[in-house]
Amino acid sequence: MGRQLALGVLISGSGTNLQAIIDAIEGKTLDAVIRVVISNREDALGLARARERNIPIEVLDHRKFASRESYDQALVEILQSREVELVILAGFMRLLSPVFVKAFTNRIMNIHPALLPSFPGLHVQRKALEHGVRFSGCTVHFVNEECDEGPIIIQAVVPVYQDDTEESLSARILQEEHRIYPRAIQLYSEGRLRLVGRRVVVDHLGNQEDQVLIQPPLNG
Ligand code: GRF
Fold first, then answer.
1. What are the chain's domains?
2. Most CB atoms within 10 A, among 24, 46, 78, 108?
3. Residue 34 and residue 37: Cα distance in Å, rounded?
């Protein structure tokens, strides 16, 4: 194990991506430690996952704040007080203001259940189905001030079947999310992600790893 990257994970819901990150840390495929899990909802199911592992939890209810900026400032203060290096958005259903993004420039990751730049925003599995695409997938990206617009780190592709429902497609995509999110964080932890303009360059790519960055694998 190398150096342990200090993570802060933000959730609003079931936290299955949080669980995938916890599992990767425990399985020693991710050199990181979760310093805090923050939820804007106290009923987020994901909180139980953190509690079970004795990970510190904070519930910060956005309805108790007068503005988006004051809420984001409170988030930033919690993350800074825990000396978080990388912020992980894992189903955090809040738009972030510049207050937040500037405090963690290029140090915020998000996972989105579509192949960006197609289908940014909400209900994207349904939109992909309605549009009739043959493939969809998920994208891990750095967060900038535009929603779902930041530099792409890795993506995974899944087929869309004719009899898919929003639920079946979401479940297929979610499975891939759980594979690629810990991988993207590990690349960051190893210091191998470099921004060149709006592109993310991954340093020291071996053949084996190409298969993780490109799905389905080129030669698998
Ligand atoms: C995932 O579909 C993710 O792509 C989106 O929100 C959902 C979070 O799911 N950003 P979970 O809370 O990790 O189970």
1. 1-104 (3.40.50.170), 110-203 (3.40.50.170)
2. 46
3. 7
- pLDDT one-digit tens code per residue, 55-66: 999 999 999 999
Structure tokens at 155: 């993506």
d(C-alpha 33, C-alpha 21), whole Å: 10
Active site residue 131: no
DSSP 170: H
Minimum-distance ligand 1 atom for the alpha carbon of 14? 12
Q: How many Å is the maximal CA-CA distance in the chain?
A: 53
Segment 138-192, tens digit of pLDDT? 999 999 999 999 999 999 999 999 999 999 999 999 999 999 999 999 999 999 9
Ligand 1 centroid to residue 119 C-alpha, Å = 15
Q: Structure pTM? A: 0.95
Distance from C-alpha of 210 to C-alpha of 72, rounded to nearest angstrom: 36
Could you tell me which residues come within 8 angstroms of residue 96 by beta carbon, excluding any fewer than 6 positions away? 72, 108, 143
CB 154 within 8 Å of CB 140:
yes
Q: State phi, psi for 138 to the nearest 5 degrees.
A: -145, 160
**Ligand 1 centroid distance, CA of 177 (Å):** 8
E strands of the chain, at which residues? 5-11, 32-39, 57-59, 86-89, 108-112, 135-142, 152-159, 193-196, 199-202
The minimum-distance atom of ligand 1 relative to the CA of 11 is: 12
CA distances from 65 to 92, 154, 170 (A): 17, 34, 32
